[in-house]
C-alpha cells in the first residue's frame, strides 16, 4: 500500500509555494491550523494529495473521529494530512495548502513523504506556520519570530521585522520539515506566533490573524483580512472583559505586561550600547519562542487558566450575561 495518495497527479502548477501547518505540539491554541483552515475556506482549493495515516499514528492517542451523517449513518474520520492546490492567475505562482497532524511514529518516513509530494508538484518554496505558548499577555501585539534556509528568504523576513529567536532545544515536526527542505534544497521559512499560555485551550483568533497578516505580506497574496482582524479585536476585548471580572486574573496579566515592558526597556538599552546580533528576538519578549513555554514563576497562573477558560466556556454555552442589543449585533 502506497503511503501517498494522489488525486490530481498530473496537475500543472506554476512554481507553487506550499503553506503548511500541523495540529499538535507546534499549534498552540489551534492558531496555525486555523490559519490554514481560513485559507481553505477562502479559496476552496482542490485536493491533490494525501499522506496515509496508518503508519504514522498511535490511534489510542490520536483517535479517529465518528460523525453522524444524515441523522443516522456513522462516518469515520481518520487523522488527515491533506494537500490542496489553488491557482492565483494574477500572481506568478500558485499555492499549495498542507493541513496535517503531527505524527507519533516514523518521522523520517513521514518527512520523506512530504518531500516527495513537494518534488512531484515542483514546489518552489515552503512556508511553515507554528504557534507556541509563552508568558505573554493577551493585551499586547502578538510576537512573531521566524527563520529561513536561504539568504533571500531571510532578507524578506527581515523586511517584515521578523527575526529568529535563537532557540535551541527540542523541536516538533515543523522544525524537522524545515531542516528536511534545507537538505533537499527547497527554500523554506517558518513563522512562529506566541500565544498566551493562560488561553492555551481557547482557539485564539488574534494569534491566527497575526500569522495570516504576515503570510499575506511575505507572499504578497493581496488577501482581504479585514474581517478576521476585526474578529481579533473583538476577541481581545472579550478576554479583557473576562479578565477584569477576576482581581487575581487582572493582577496576573498586569504583571506579565510589566515584565515585558521591563524586557523591552532592557533591549532598548542594549541597542543603545551595541548593535544587536541577528538572532535577537525583535518582536517578542522571550528568547524561547520556538517551543511551547511553561507557565513561568508567577503563582497565580493555574487559577487564571481555570478562571478564564471557565468563563469562556460559560459564555459559549449560555451567551454573555447582561448583553445589550449593540453587543448582540457585533458578530
Automatic annotation (TrEMBL):
<dbReference type="Pfam" id="PF09754">
    <property type="entry name" value="PAC2"/>
</dbReference>
<feature type="compositionally biased region" description="Acidic residues">
    <location>
        <begin position="264"/>
        <end position="278"/>
    </location>
</feature>
<feature type="compositionally biased region" description="Basic and acidic residues">
    <location>
        <begin position="307"/>
        <end position="319"/>
    </location>
</feature>
<feature type="region of interest" description="Disordered">
    <location>
        <begin position="262"/>
        <end position="331"/>
    </location>
</feature>
<protein>
    <recommendedName>
        <fullName>Carboxylate--amine ligase</fullName>
    </recommendedName>
</protein>
<dbReference type="InterPro" id="IPR008492">
    <property type="entry name" value="Rv2714-like"/>
</dbReference>
<dbReference type="InterPro" id="IPR019151">
    <property type="entry name" value="Proteasome_assmbl_chaperone_2"/>
</dbReference>
<dbReference type="InterPro" id="IPR038389">
    <property type="entry name" value="PSMG2_sf"/>
</dbReference>
Amino acid at each position: 500500500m502506497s503511503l501517498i495518495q494522489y488525486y490530481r497527479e498530473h496537475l500543472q502548477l506554476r512554481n507553487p509555494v506550499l503553506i503548511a501547518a500541523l495540529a499538535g505540539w507546534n499549534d498552540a491554541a489551534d492558531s496555525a491550523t486555523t490559519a490554514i483552515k481560513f485559507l481553505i475556506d477562502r479559496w476552496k482549493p482542490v485536493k491533490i494529495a494525501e499522506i496515509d495515516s496508518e503508519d504514522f499514528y498511535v490511534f489510542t492517542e490520536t483517535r479517529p473521529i465518528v460523525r453522524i451523517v444524515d441523522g443516522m449513518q456513522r462516518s469515520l474520520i481518520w487523522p488527515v494530512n491533506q494537500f490542496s492546490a489553488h491557482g492565483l492567475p494574477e500572481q506568478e505562482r500558485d499555492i499549495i495548502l498542507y493541513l496535517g497532524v503531527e505524527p507519533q511514529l516514523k518521522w523520517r518516513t513521514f518527512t520523506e513523504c512530504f518531500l516527495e509530494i513537494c518534488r512531484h508538484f515542483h514546489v518552489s518554496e515552503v512556508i511553515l506556520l507554528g504557534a507556541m505558548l509563552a508568558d505573554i499577555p493577551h493585551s499586547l501585539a502578538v510576537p512573531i519570530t521566524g527563520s529561513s534556509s536561504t539568504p533571500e528568504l531571510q532578507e524578506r523576513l527581515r523586511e517584515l521585522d521578523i527575526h529568529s529567536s535563537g532557540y535551541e532545544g527540542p523541536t516538533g515536526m515543523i522544525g524537522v520539515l524545515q531542516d528536511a527542505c534545507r537538505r533537499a534544497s527547497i527554500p523554506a521559512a517558518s513563522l512562529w506566533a506566541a500565544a498566551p499560555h493562560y488561553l492555551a485551550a481557547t482557539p485564539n483568533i488574534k494569534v491566527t490573524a497575526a500569522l495570516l497578516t504576515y503570510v499575506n505580506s511575505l507572499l504578497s497574496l493581496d488577501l482581504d483580512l479585514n474581517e478576521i482582524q476585526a474578529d481579533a479585536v473583538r476577541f481581545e476585548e472579550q478576554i479583557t472583559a473576562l479578565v477584569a471580572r477576576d482581581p487575581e486574573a487582572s493582577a496576573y496579566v498586569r504583571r506579565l505586561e510589566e515584565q515585558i515592558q521591563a524586557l523591552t526597556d532592557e533591549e532598548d538599552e542594549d541597542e543603545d550600547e551595541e548593535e544587536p546580533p541577528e538572532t535577537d528576538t525583535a518582536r517578542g519578549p522571550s528568547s524561547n519562542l520556538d517551543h511551547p513555554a511553561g507557565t513561568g514563576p508567577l503563582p497565580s497562573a493555574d487559577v487564571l487558566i481555570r478562571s478564564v477558560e471557565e468563563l469562556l466556556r460559560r459564555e459559549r454555552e449560555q451567551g454573555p450575561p447582561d448583553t445589550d442589543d449593540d453587543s448582540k449585533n457585533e458578530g
